[in-house]
Structures are given as C-alpha cells and as structure tokens.
Amino acid sequence: MRLLAEGLSARRGEDLIFKDISFDLAGGEALVVTGPNGSGKSTLLRVLAGLLGADSGRVRLKGGPAGFDHPRELSHYLGHRNAMKRELTVEENLIFWQRFLGDSPGGSGDGLVEAATAVGLADIIHLPFGYLSAGQQRRMAMAKLLVAYRPIWLLDEPTAALDVSADRLFAGLVARHLERGGIVIAATHQALGFTGVKSLEMTGFFH
Ligand SMILES: Nc1ncnc2c1ncn2[C@@H]1O[C@H](COP(=O)(O)OP(=O)(O)OP(=O)(O)O)[C@@H](O)[C@H]1O
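== Heme ABC exporter, ATP-binding protein CcmA ==
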C-alpha cells in the first residue's frame, strides 16, 4: 500500500496555510513533519485524516484494501488532546475506542491488557483517566493506537509530556508498526528517536 499526497494546499479561514505539499510513502515508511509553530503541521495531519478538506491537490491510497482510496478510514489520528473521558477508567476508555474504531481490514488490534502493558501502565487500568499524570495520559492515548488495527498512524506531537523512557517506548511501538508494514506520519518539535524516516519541513507563510 502507498499513501500519496499530491500538490496539497490548505486554508484555515481565509488564510492559505501551505501549498504544493507532495510525498509518497510505502508501507513500512515514516514521515516526520517539522516546522515552527503555526506552520501548518496539525492542519496537514487533519487533511490527511479527512477531518479538513484540502484547498487543492489530493490525498490517495494505492494498493490498499479494496474500497479504500483515502487514508481516513484506515488511520489512527492522535491529536494534541488525548480524546479520553476523564470520568471513565482507563479500561473503559480503551474498550470504548476498541469498539468504536474496530479493526481495519488486514489486521487485528491487541487486547486491552496487552495494550496497557505495552505502554507500561497495566497496573492502573482500573483508575479514572482523570487521575493519571499528563505523561501517563499520553501513554494511554498511545494504547489507543494498539487496541484497534489501523495501518496508518497520524500523530500530532505524540511525545509531548513524555519522559525519556516513554520516548523510547513510543519509538519501539512505532518501529514495530513500521516492521509490520504500517505507515506513520508524525508532526513533532522533538526528535522521535527512530531512524530511516523521510522528513518534511513546513515553512508556513507570513501574513
Ligand atoms: N480554525 C481555524 N481558523 C483559522 N485559522 C486557524 C484555525 N486553526 C488553525 N489556524 C491557523 O492555521 C495556522 C496553522 O496552524 P497549525 O495548528 O496547523 O500549525 P502547527 O504547525 O501545527 O503549529 P504548532 O507547532 O503550534 O502545533 C496557524 O496560523 C493557526 O492560527
């Protein structure tokens, strides 16, 4: 499967945020998107996730499962917010996401305990999400990537609030996903700790 962006441009309100963004990623490849605040990294991820329309250009998949020609339904989107309910336990949140997202064709997600263990938090699965520290909350958001299979991961500042060991753990999860033929696109200000990735530097426009 390949993910292609061809001459993409996007606007927020009246403002053109970026233009002429093109890339081509095969299964097993990652793209790290860098650039200053406001340069359009989150906007690009939202376009790829199908949450925002492109102003011009297109995003498409080649060679993916039949009937899927856009990455939106085959993607996990991890935004700045963790998208968990504070009042529900970690386990309840993960069960919700597992059922809501379901598996994409071609794979199956991990069990809850397995996913919580993979992010190093199996012991606190019974706690309300709101009780967790910021770093623990971000780890649980990563577990969401594991409980339902999606071949494409779109990650916005995935390692914000993470300590060094969680950074390494996250790099391991990404490496495993790539080894299994997944695609990862991550916007970040920090080095993510994995090698052999493509990069895209957003420059933004001055209005
Ligand atoms: N809903 C909106 N309406 C109008 N402008 C918006 C909207 N959302 C974002 N913008 C503008 O779009 C531009 C790009 O924002 P975006 O969040 O994509 O940048 P970013 O590179 O991800 O920034 P950061 O590194 O701070 O997360 C910014 O100038 C921002 O103010």
